[in-house]
Design goal:
By secondary structure, the chain is an alpha+beta fold. It has eleven helices and 24 strands. Strand 3 and strand 4 form a beta hairpin. Helix 5 packs across helix 6 and helix 5 packs across helix 11. The protein is globular.
Length: 394
């Protein structure tokens, strides 16, 4: 049955008359696929003013109660934010959220392809896109982006387990919220089905359902690219005293391209970036370390400027300047003038597992479980089905 967008209005006006028929259609055709296993809700960002979607082989739209509104879209459908509701194919509706699905569970969203179902909702004057899918399918779009699929199979299993654990931990933390994780470096980068790789898929399948636990609960499985020295205590970076996120020696990552790095950042760009971030500062005179962590990274920096002094967390400095501009807080400033010249080591916050260290350990013959227990002291590798606690570990 093909239904164009106009029946959405008809359903809105005549829902009582058509409810029985709609429920019958849903019961017979089940337009929204059932998600097997553990579902995860992924926020696809940034929130756009409109989105173009299509399905394979065709697209179905329902409301949040599962009422069928339209189906049979074989060509792309454009959905935009309107003043009172969503605009679908240039037709205004009073719907504030739609759920898109396809017969084969594959949806094309702008320039990416995702599985599961897609929630399209009004969010202020834009759209909020949330992809809901099985966690094992989600991992297929994460693991090949977070590490190289050319790495040792044991390293790929390590990444699959920590990414699975991280997502399920965030799902518990975000109970009651609209989504569990973001598809960016704010959580884990998720690229959808276009990024799938057979070697990564194999590692995900061979570690299916395995997670990291401490005291019978999920852990916050933080990870980073390159430690370039001891890993960091979570208490130093985030103020969280977690027994499994204590610093350990990491002599394994010297082959990382980020083990040593240097940066030159124009002073004008630095001052503009601070202003954009909401800091009222004048001309910068100096930027110097103020405190260090036990592992030797900078904990706080002191910024002297023409309007006074600013004491700032080093991780906040990374966020303001950009994580690619300042790869880690293990750095020293060589010169300040028209530009800031920085020499540094490592990439990332330094907490938890070092990916390049895990790579080297795998090549040395360590199994995935030994690697995980090294970087997360005291943890167990266990099936997620064995966890009964609802609340995440503190």
């Amino acid at each position: 049955m093909f239904v164009n967008i106009r029946p959405i209005r008809a359903v809105q006006k005549n829902r009582k008359k058509t409810a029985a028929l709609i429920l019958l259609i849903i019961g017979l055709f089940n337009p929204r696929p059932v998600l097997a296993g553990e579902p995860i809700r992924v926020l696809l960002v940034p929130d756009p003013p409109s989105v173009t979607i299509s399905g394979n082989p065709s697209l179905t739209l329902t409301d949040t109660d599962g009422h069928l509104l339209a189906e049979g879209f074989k060509s792309p459908v454009v959905i935009a934010a309107g003043p009172q509701g969503l605009i679908v194919q240039n037709e205004s509706t009073d719907q504030r959220e739609l759920v898109a699905s396809s017969g084969r569970g594959e949806i094309h969203v702008n320039d990416m392809t995702v599985g599961g179902i897609l929630h399209i909702a009004l969010y202020h004057d834009k759209l909020r896109l949330i992809n809901e899918l099985d966690i094992e399918e989600y991992l297929k779009g994460v693991v090949p982006i977070e590490i190289s699929t050319k790495w040792h199979p044991e390293a790929l299993k390590v990444q699959a387990i920590i990414a699975r654990t991280y997502a399920l931990y965030q799902r518990q933390v975000n109970l009651g919220k609209e989504y569990d994780v973001q598809a960016t470096t704010a959580d884990q980068v998720y690229g959808g089905r276009d990024k799938e790789n057979p070697l990564a898929n194999q590692a995900i399948a061979e570690s299916r359902g395995l997670v990291l636990t401490f005291g019978g609960q999920l852990i916050l499985s933080a990870y980073h690219s390159t430690s370039a020295g001891p890993t960091e205590n979570a208490s130093e970076v985030w103020g969280m005293d977690l027994p499994y996120l204590k610093g350990v020696s990491c002599p394994f990552d010297q082959n990382s391209p980020y083990y040593q790095w240097s940066k030159s950042i124009p002073m004008e760009a630095v001052q503009k970036t601070f202003s954009t971030a909401g800091y009222s500062i004048g001309t910068i005179a100096s930027i110097t370390p103020f405190r260090w962590t036990e592992a030797g990274r900078i904990s706080q920096i002191r910024l002297i400027h023409s309007q006074g002094e600013l004491i700032l967390k080093a991780e906040d400095l990374r966020r303001i300047l950009g994580y690619t501009e300042l790869p880690s807080t293990h750095f020293r400033i060589e010169k300040i003038g028209r530009e800031i010249r920085i020499q540094g080591n490592g990439y990332g916050h330094g907490v938890g597992l070092c990916q390049w260290g895990a790579k080297e350990m795998a090549e040395m013959g360590y199994r995935y479980d030994r690697i995980l227990k090294y970087y997360y002291p005291g943890v167990l590798v266990a099936p997620y089905s064995s966890i009964t606690a609802v609340e995440p570990a503190p």
